[in-house]
Amino acid sequence: MNIVQAEGLVKQVKSPEGTLTILNNITMSVKRGESLAIVGVSGSGKSTLLGLLAGLDTPSSGKVILNDIDLSTLDEDGRARIRSESVGFVFQSFHLLPGLTALENTSLPLELAEISDATQKAQQQLDQVGLSDRIHHYPNQLSGGEQQRVAIARAFCANPAILFADEPTGNLDQKTAGKIIELLFNLNNKNDTTLILVTHDHNLAKLCDRQIEIAGGEIVQSS
Fold it and tell me: Which of 20, 28, 25, 24 shows the shortest CA–CA distance to 4?
């Protein structure tokens, strides 16, 4: 059963030179519990595709069905509600709030969703990523790998059906990246989460069930 389905996605933007087509006629699907890597060179459109699949942006034409809901039928508030209920995110740049501790950063989405025991659940998730002794540290007191662990804890805290990861190891050294990859896939398997990630790291991509390659805004290979 598909949890994400894209049909004829096109994304165009206006530029001084005219209309620029970033994505052209993307049709694809992802099954529940599956892991998919979206690969391609810089500028190929893979991060734009991830944003459309996650409902962070809207296509110029075509549609995305996310967890059985057609995102094109929703306004921004509706898409935000779907994201809060079903989706987790891990980004290359961590996106932690500097004035909040690791525990506060992790519990914030739960508190915004008015989930009970937000702090306790956040602490349990930080324990799972190996940061039980760092929960009261601020982002600038944590290494890059530790910050990404906080971001992963935050993403999994609400038990999302789908996790979107955009270059999750892009800002990390090779050794730290390896640990983050292992953690990400372990948590993904444990939670039976659907994982869709953008990466230029072919070693990371090979760990996924499937790969699609984007070039010039189109899918040129699927395996």
Answer: 28
For the chain, the 3-state helix, strand and coil shares in percent, each to the nearest 5, are 40, 30, 30
Under the banding of pLDDT at 50, 70 and 90, the label for residue 208 is very high
99 CB-contact burial (10 Å; exposed 0-12 / middle 13-18 / buried 19+): exposed
Q: Whole-angstrom distance between the N-terminal and C-terminal Cα of the chain?
A: 18
> In terms of Cα–Cα distance, which of 186, 91, 172, 191 is closest to 105?
91
DSSP state of 156: H
pLDDT tens-digit profile of 26-40? 999 999 999 999 999
Distances, alpha carbon 218 to alpha carbons 15, 26, 66, 73, in Å: 20, 6, 20, 25
Please say whether the beta carbons of 22 and 62 come within 8 A: no
Give the full edge-to-edge strand order of the sheet including 69-70: 18-31, 2-15, 61-66, 69-70
